[in-house]
Amino acid sequence: MELLNRKLDTETTKINYKKVVWFYDFWSLLTESKAAKYVIKFADIKDNETILEVACGTGVVFEQIVNLNPNGKNIGIDLSPDMLKKAEKRLKKFKNIDYELKEGNALKLDLDNNSIDILINNFMIDLMPADTFDKIAEEFLRVTKPNGKVVISTFSYGKKKINKFWFWVAKRFPDLLTGCRPVSFKENLIKSGFKIEKDMEISQNTFPSGIIKARKMARK
Ligand SMILES: C[S@@+](CC[C@H](N)C(=O)[O-])C[C@H]1O[C@@H](n2cnc3c(N)ncnc32)[C@H](O)[C@@H]1O
């Protein structure tokens, strides 16, 4: 499967998400909300856990994480101050709950080794340059506790013929999708030392997504 070339730097990504923040939630409701349901299901949050969402965007999934983990520690990071501002508004209602939203970069997480029980990352890998995938997987492995889990959703190639439409859009009109394109992150996770526990393909209004749950092996 062809992996489309992307070279987005952090400043371009910030500009891109400043432009789309006003309609992002509507887009995600139509194309990504089904994947988000599986992500929450696979994360199997028990409360009292330390949970990190990398690229939390406008906080749609982070809100659910905080709801399920009110006695734990919840950290949401994103590159875009504009997406974070919207997330802050959404999360305002949570009083006396330990949550934190801050700017951060998936490529260099400002977190200790082995500090996170569950790491969640939705629809970010698909806009990253391919030569950063290994680095991201290594960062995810570094911060996750032994036996901790990561749950990741991405724009995928899909299994149905109709899903190919989105590959075509990503190839022909990359800016329409802020640079996102179909990817597979599974091999990078395995290479870094994760064990894949779930690997699922879904489609919502023809838009294809992949959801992966993986665990950090205890000996790492
Ligand atoms: C397609 S949006 C997904 C937002 C959210 N995860 C969701 O599913 O609604 C991609 C998000 O990734 C963020 N992002 C892109 N590159 C990033 C990086 N290197 N580190 C952290 N966040 C990043 C963008 O700012 C944007 O908010």
What do you see in this structure?
With about 220 residues, the protein is an alpha/beta fold. It has helices at about 10-30, 35-45, 60-70, 80-90, 135-145, 165-170, 185-190; strands at about 50-55, 75-80, 100-105, 115-120, 145-155, 195-205, 205-215. It has one domain: Vaccinia Virus protein VP39 (Rossmann fold, 3-Layer(aba) Sandwich). Strands 3-2-1-4-5-7-6 form a seven-stranded mixed beta sheet, with helices on both faces. β2, α4 (about 80-90) and β3 (about 100-105) form a beta-alpha-beta unit. α5 packs across α7 (about 185-190). The longest helix has 22 residues, at about 10-30. The protein is globular, with a radius of gyration of 16 Å. The chain starts with 9 loop residues before the first helix and ends with a strand. Bound molecules: S-adenosylmethionine. S-adenosylmethionine binds near residues 17, 32, 56, 78 and 105. S-adenosylmethionine binds near residues 13, 28, 55 and 127.
